[in-house]
Amino acid sequence: MAIPAKLIEFLNQHKVRYTVLHHPEAFTAQELSAIEGIKGRYHAKVVMVKTGDQMIMAVLPADHRIELERIERLSGARALLATEAEFKDTFPDCAVGTMPPFGKLYDVPTWVDKSLTEDDYIVFEAGTHTDAIRMSYADYARLAEPTVADFAVKLH
What we know:
It is a single chain. The protein is globular. A hairpin with a 5-residue loop joins strand 7 (121-125) and strand 8 (131-136). With 156 residues, it is an alpha/beta fold. It has helices at 5-13, 29-36, 68-75, 84-87, 137-144; strands at residues 18-22, 43-51, 54-61, 64-66, 79-81, 110-113, 121-125, 131-136, 147-149, 152-154. The longest helix has 9 residues, at 5-13. Strands 1, 2, 3, 5, 6, 7, 8 and 9 form an 8-stranded mixed sheet that branches. Strands 4-10 form a two-stranded antiparallel sheet.
């Protein structure tokens, strides 16, 4: 599977600088961080969450975990982790679990944990298990237009 064309077109259309990082196959954000020698706080992982009857894309650092209770307080609805079966059809051009953190490309609201906003750049999966993209957080925020909230806690 290739990097989704609509992702590359979107980035190029908005004239942002980014780097495509090719890497050995990785299936978790923490594996990718280790393979690329990038600290977990810079690797933005996507977690799909059901809030009531809506699906949201929660984006947080690889070295953090999502706190569903915080999502519930923020959304006003019960929050549950979505299963792959519940979201895989939403991202038909991505390998399961590798969707880039641009929910607007797939008509899904994007929420970003505030801890990601503190760094200069982020790295994220680019729709495959062997490609990632590095770009400035400022450019990411401008393009993704996420809701920024405090919903994750650092692991150890």
